[in-house]
Amino acid sequence: MLRAHQHAAGASGSDADSEALGYSKGGFSTKIHLRCEDNGKPVTFLLTVGQRNEATVFESLMAQGEVKRPGPGRPRLRPQRVAGDKAYTGRPIRLYLRRRGIGAVIPRRSNESRQGTRFDRQAYRERNRIERTINRFKQFRRIATRYEKRAQNYLAMLTIAAILCWL
Prior knowledge:
Elements: E1 2-3, E2 22-24, E3 27-36, E4 42-49, H1 58-63, E5 81-83, H2 91-99, E6 103-105, H3 121-125, H4 128-138, H5 141-145, H6 151-166
Parallel strand pairs: 5-6
Antiparallel strand pairs: 1-3, 2-3, 3-4
């Protein structure tokens, strides 16, 4: 979650939902939902308002972005497994992943039942690559503070930062 600058709000002819600006516990902010490849390079991202739950955009995030195969063939759309934090846990997401044959490396919340599934701690430790990618994005001042009023302009800045991460 990134804090938005106080002057980022108020673009004429728009509402906070379409511009991905909203209030959460941390204040006026925007959430960046990020999908990375194995090496921590960004594949695709979505923006939502600060108070929106991560589970609402999970399926659309998984439907975007392709990773080139090392050899010949079409690019891969489905990963072999998904590592996420506790915000991405829950029955709908786990069913979505199971139907598509994708492994889930997502810890369960304390109030969830542990229906015989083992949690792979070693694989979960590799999730820090995503956190490092987000920290690389935050090194760009325009992304860390979100001066842009329009979500479209902010997405353009994120795209430029993602390109620089790939170089």
